[in-house]
Amino acid sequence: MRRRHTTACKIPTDARVEVTGFQADASGYTEYTIATTLNGSLYGSSHRYSKFRKLHPALLTGTAISLPATFPVPKSLVNDEAVKRDRVAALNGYLVM
């Protein structure tokens, strides 16, 4: 049986991560904009909702971070502005768990 390695995550006390909004990428898909502040420097990135969903199981098995068993931001068949705004709020809640 293969043993899984779990890594304890030490997040610096001055680190801050926030989903600040969303935008359409070149192919028309929605990407959520993330701002990370670490040691006084600001870093930005954009990721699709599906990337967050794929990351969740990896965090559950590869780190000692306490997270819910299922990804807490629901999928939606409709992807209108209201859903996107709700996802920004829900993703921010997820990031501070």
Characterize the overall form.
Answer: globular
Report low-confidence residues grouped into runs of 5 or more.
Answer: 1-6
Task: Determine Rg (CA atoms, Å).
Answer: 15 Å
CA-CA gap between termini: 31 Å
| Average pLDDT | 83
Number of helical segments with 4 or more residues: 2
Strand content: 25-35%
Main beta sheet, described?
3 strands, antiparallel
What structural class do you assign from the helix and strand content? alpha+beta
Order of helices and strands: EEEHH
Helical content band = 25-40%
Strand order of the largest sheet: 1-2-3
Strand tally:
3
Descriptive overview:
The protein has 97 residues and is α+β, with helices and mostly antiparallel strands. 30% of the residues lie in helices and 27% in strands. Strands 1-2-3 form a 3-stranded antiparallel beta sheet. The longest helix is centred in the last third of the chain and has 15 residues, at 81-95. The chain is globular, with a radius of gyration of 15 Å. The model is unreliable at 1-6 (pLDDT under 50).
